[in-house]
Amino acid sequence: MLHPPRTIMEVFKMLPQGTLAEVIENTLYMSPTPTAQHQRLIRELLDQFSLFLKEEKTGEIFVSPLDVFLDESSNAVEPDLFFIRSENISIVDPNGHIHGVPDLIIEVLSPGNQSHDKVRKKALYERFGVKEYWIVDPATKETIGYKLVDNKYISLGEFAGEIRSQLLNHSFSF
């Protein structure tokens, strides 16, 4: 880059690889590294989704860190886990990042930033049209699910140790 960064997105793109950061509505948010409990839960969910998708072949599951550019100017996130249906797989740049909206996103809460996932990112995902959004608390294993209906999230319910995906017509227990 021949000039200093002029936008937050330019700053974001200059960060060293592996930096835990997101841009939401032109604001840069940095995150500490996840806890072991957080990572164990993500691994368990990833294993279950991978087994399911190996049989069903309906799309692909991805795990952070991987940048998802919801748009190219002001919103880039790193969801913990996200699913892209086969018919939408063109949003995956084979040599880079995701440029578009995943079909399903799962965020595992971290201590100290719960409102980031429960409020800020929920509103962002709803606005961009993520079809299904799940929030998981690793301490209690409580899950909260949302489904997009008429451009608004409606509750899929709260569960203990289970994600009941209507999009995939399958439940994942942990």
Structural descriptors:
six-stranded mixed beta sheet, globular, 174 residues, three-stranded mixed beta sheet, 3 helices
Task: Outline the structure in words.
The protein has a single domain, classed as tt1808, chain A. Helices cover 25% and strands 34% of the residues. The chain is built from three helices and 13 strands. The strands form four sheets. Strands 3-6-8-9-10-11 form a six-stranded mixed β-sheet, with helices on both faces. A three-stranded mixed β-sheet has the order 5-4-7, with no helix packed on it. Strands 1-2 form a two-stranded antiparallel ribbon. Strand 8, helix 3 and strand 9 form a beta-alpha-beta unit. The mean pLDDT is 95.
Quick take:
This protein is α+β, with helices and mostly antiparallel strands. The chain contains three helices and 13 strands, in the order αββαββββββαβββββ.
